[in-house]
Amino acid sequence: MAAQETPEIVLYDLACTKNICFSPVVWCTRLMLNYKQIPYKTVFLEFPDIEATLEELGLPPNETGHKYTVPAIQHVPTATHLMGSIPIAQFLESTYPDPPVPLTSEPGSEIGARARAVVGPVMTKSLMPREVRILSPRSQEYFRRTREASIGRPLEDLLGEGTDDEQQRWDAVDEELRGLGAFLQTRKAEGPFVLGARPSYTDFFIAGSLQCARTVDEGVFKRISKYPGFKDIYEACQPYMERKD
Fold first, then answer.
1. 185: three-class secondary structure by DSSP
2. Contact, 44 vs 15, CB < 8 A?
């Protein structure tokens, strides 16, 4: 394939035992690459190797949070290196403008804010204890050590005493999820995406988040994908999610 023989982009992704992309933020980048049909190759990094690898590329560290994170890319023709899904999206859109991917919009801003406020916390508690299961032993040790230091308790405690605690959290956001799902369908008459017939970065954010859930745990994926709007966007993005590695 040309995408493997003559890559214009080297994409640094997060490794897992399934050997496919599962990070939601990397999926935002990957969806743009696939949609725009930009030739690229993937370099999967284990958690403990991210900082050393990206530092060696000359990337400056983040000022807050983790110093080095994926996604990161190398644009081969210009030897440009970038880290972070938003800077990468801006670069890809300016360098490869056709077909266009709207990066911002008024409904997109509202959807992003509502999704992060409502779905984000519940998804994190459901996925983080399960994510460790699809990591290599080296990454499992790193992930557990760093995340448990951050949250101050064992990962499994996030699931609660039993399945009832997790179910209660999802039940508590059911109404908001229904409302957000309906809002995603505002332009349903024009097409399945947030802005109608063509995808935007917001659609890739939603589809990537659902694909992350599906890779980590099918049950968590079903909790969200059952809602119209979320399901429609995920299914509409499937042609751009065929390549996962």
1. coil
2. yes
Average pLDDT (11-18) is: 98
CA angle 172, 228, 163 (to 5 degrees): 35
Residues 214, 114: Cα–Cα separation, whole Å:
21
* CA nearest to 89, candidates 30, 23, 8, 159: 30
Tokens of 185: 């369908």
DSSP string, 44-105: EE-GGGHHHHHHHTTPPPPSSS-SS-S-EEEETTTTEEEESHHHHHHHHHHHS-SS------
Instruction: Dihedral sign for Cα 42, 44, 45, 47, please.
Output: positive
pLDDT digit string (tens) for 63-106? 888 899 999 999 999 999 999 999 999 999 999 999 999 999 99
